[in-house]
Structure formats: C-alpha cells, structure tokens
Amino acid sequence: MRKIWTIAWKDVSTTFRDRNLVLVMLAAPLAVATVIALAFGGISGGDIPIKDIPVAIVNLDKGANSQNLGDIYVNTFIPPASGSGNANGTCKLASVSAANTNNGSLQSLVKATKLDDPAVAKVGVDDGTYMAAVIIPQDFTQKVSIGVGKLTVEPSSVEVYVNQGREIQAGIIRSIVEGITNQIATGNITLQSLFASISNKFGIAQIVGVVTNQSFVDNVACAFTPGVSKLTIDQQSVQGQKASGAIPLLILFGSAQAMFFTLFTGQGGVNGIFEERKQGTLQRLVVTPTPRIYILIGKMLGVLVNCTLQLVFLFIALTIVGSVLNKGFVVIWGTNYLLIGLVIIAAALAATGLGALLAGVAKTPEQGQIYGSLINVAMAVLGGAFGFQLPEVVSRFSLLYWGSGAFQKLANGSNDVGLNLVVLTAMGVVMFVIGFWLFNKRLDI
C-alpha cells in the first residue's frame, strides 16, 4: 500500500509543479466562468430592486372536506380576476374590498407563475428563471384542516425552494409563505379548540349543526381569505445595499467549467503513462521489486487525487471571486460541506473513470487524445457548459449534467443530490474497471 501511495504522490507533486499545466487546470476554467458571469451579470446590480420577484407556485394539494387550503397560497400570489366569483370565497365582510385594494403592494412585489410540476419549478429556480418556488404538498389540506370526523391538526409543511444567489428576495418570499402558513395554522387551531369545547359541553353531534350553519361558514371563510389577511408589505428604501447579479451565473458556469476541465485532467493523467513509457521512466519503475498492478493502481490513484484537488481549488477560487463581486464574503456553494466533499470525490472518480476507459479503448495516445477531446466537448454541450441547455432527456447522458447539477443544487440550499452521487459514482466505477482492465491488457512495457 505504501508503494501505491508513493507512486500516486509522485504524480500529484509532478502535476502541480508544472506551471503551464496548473494554468490549464485552474486558471482557464476560472477565467472563463468569471468573464461570462461579469459579461451577463455585471459587477453589481446597484440598489436591490425589491419588486417583480419571479416566483413559481405549485399547488399539489388535493383538498379535503370541500376545501383546498393550497388555493390560499395561489390566490395570495396570483389573485383571481375581479368578478370571477372566487376571489373571496363565501366571505361577506365589507372590509374585504378595502383589503383587496391594499393587496396591490404584494402584486407589485412579486410576479408569480402557476406551474403543475415541482421538478420544472426547481429547474427554473436553478437556472435563474425564478427566485423561489413554493410547493404545496398533496395532503396539505387533509392534514391541517378541521372538520366533522377529524378534530385534530396534523403536522405538514410547504416547501420553499430558493435561489441562494438572491438571499434578500428569497427571504422575502419565505416570509410571505410563513405569514400565510401561520394564518392557516392559527385558524385551524382555533377551530380545533372551538370544536373540542362544543364536543365536551354539548356532545359531538352538535358540531354537525355548527359546521352546516351558513352564517358560521361565511365567517370562518374570512379567516382563510387572502383579502382580509393581516399580511402586509412595508417597502422602505435602503441605501448602500448592493447585490451582484453575477453570482448565479458564476455558480452555473463555474460548476460546468470545473467539470469540463476536470475531464481533460482525468484523460491527460492516464495518457501520461504512455508518455512515461516512451521516456523509459515506466520501464525503470517496473524493474524495481514492485508488482505491475501496484504501479497501475498508483498511477490511477494519482489521477484521481489530481482531479479531486483541481475541483477543490477551483471551488475555493470561485468562492473568492464571488465574494469580490459581492463586495463581501459569501459562501456560494452552500454550507453542507460533507455533501460538497462527496460530490467532489464522485465527480473526480467519474472523470478518472472516463479517462481510463478512453486510454483503454484507444490504440495510441494520439488516438486517445482525439477521442477524448470529442467526447469531452460533446459532454460539455449536452451538460450546458457553453451557455445553452438541451432537453433533459439528452443531457442525462453527460457527466457534466450530473456533476454540475449537484453543485447547483447544493448552492441553492437543496440536499437532494443522492441520485447525482449514485450516477457519478456508478459511472465512474464501471468505466474505471473496464478501462483499467483494457489498459492493463493493452499496455506493453
């Protein structure tokens, strides 16, 4: 084992002592991502525009007891047209019209779009189309509502999937959703206490008479009507606060370019074994009392470490660039460092496996370089590294899609990267084993 680590460390130290190689591995992807982010995002967005915040609303709630509490979220962000008949449900309070007039401040604050698929909404947040996605679960009304035969409130949650690059706007949306949720919770807890009191004093049969009373229904409906909500928006101008529009682009292109150049590192490291054979270095190593399999494993391990260190250094550098653009330190890749580390290792393993497979299939180093360049560029195109995104059904064939997508999810505060880890690790292991076997069989020392 010590011999394997010695061989691997020699290759790692040789790689990072090569100034030109380090420039290609680190400076090139960092420069590309930074230039694109500055070109399309700008150094600073000036005063933060707290208006027209794009939001996606996904109401999966199936409702219960002839009501759908998920519609309250939808109607708050996207009020029904006046005269549509469902703006205020059965609420008859005269104050509703005045409250609806004041609700205009919320409509100038957000620009909501109703979607049917939560996955589409999350993709929209990841690519910057929306600042946040509000997703109401299927059983929301069933769990939190009170009615005949169900006198208890069950725990439930509304998911707010946000863009970490716009913390202020995302925080506003989260606060609005919390306000609506608290209003619903307060109303239902009040009903729970009311029904419990009626049941204890007069018997559970009296509850049926109460809930079927039209006057009671009209008044209770007002507690869940957006028009009479206590939710208010107080906008104030804050001087000096700046937000960089370049950070979301830096995350998008930085993660893609890091994966793209790591593929070349994996390929170049494996092909370097052929160069050592030409120079006679490999032959001198073989004549030592070191098994051939140890030599190849050490070489492959060195490539894996190089790819891992490349990704680590790139993400640290991109964080520094993001902090400079933001004019203050910002953690652009999220705070779940364990998952970040696991994704980096999985991505490095996938890049090493692809390099081993290409070296095993190619008959000559030159042929391997040609094949590698074509495949790497194809994966970059499929994975969106060049600024345009192909249909997801096609992009899934690219390592960049799974690697860059995982980093973007972590940057946006989501820990849902399990599938990305499985795909990257599985593809890396399979390609590594096949490539190692072919390479060992073909290598003639």
Architecture blueprint of SSEs:
Blueprint lengths: L1 H16 L1 H23 L11 E7 L10 H8 L17 H8 L1 H6 E6 L2 H9 L5 E5 L3 H5 L14 E4 L4 H36 L2 H7 L2 H10 L22 H34 L1 H6 L5 H35 L10 H25 L3 H19 L8 H4 L3 H13 L6 H25 L3
Parallel strand pairs: 1-2, 1-3
Antiparallel strand pairs: 3-4
Helix pairs in contact: 1-13, 2-11, 2-13, 11-13, 11-14, 11-15, 11-17, 13-14, 14-15, 14-17, 14-18, 15-17, 17-18
Please characterize this protein's 3D structure.
- This protein is mainly alpha-helical and 445 residues long.
- The protein has helices at residues 2-17, 19-41, 70-77, 95-102, 104-109, 118-126, 140-144, 167-202, 205-211, 214-223, 246-279, 281-286, 292-326, 337-361, 365-383, 392-395, 399-411, 418-442, and strands at 53-59, 110-115, 132-136, 159-162.
- The chain has two domains: 2-44 and 244-442, no CATH class; 53-228, 3-Layer(aba) Sandwich (abc type-2 transporter like fold), CATH 3.40.1710.
- The chain is elongated, with a radius of gyration of 29 Å.
- The two termini are 22 Å apart.
Q: What fraction of the residues are assigned to beta strands by DSSP?
A: under 5%
Task: Tell me the number of helical segments per DSSP (H or I, 4 or more residues long).
Answer: 18
Poorly predicted runs are: 44-48, 93-104, 237-243
Which sheet architecture does the biggest sheet show? 4 strands, mixed
Query: Rg to the nearest angstrom?
Result: 29 Å
Reading the helices and strands in chain order gives HHEHHHEHEHEHHHHHHHHHHH
Instruction: Report strand order across the widest sheet.
Output: 2-1-3-4
Mean pLDDT level: 77
Instruction: Tally the structural domains.
Output: 2
Helix fraction by DSSP (H/I, runs of at least 4): 55-70%
Structural class: mainly alpha
DSSP strand tally: 4
Q: Can you tell me the overall shape?
A: elongated
Distance from N terminus to C terminus (CA atoms, Å) equals: 22 Å
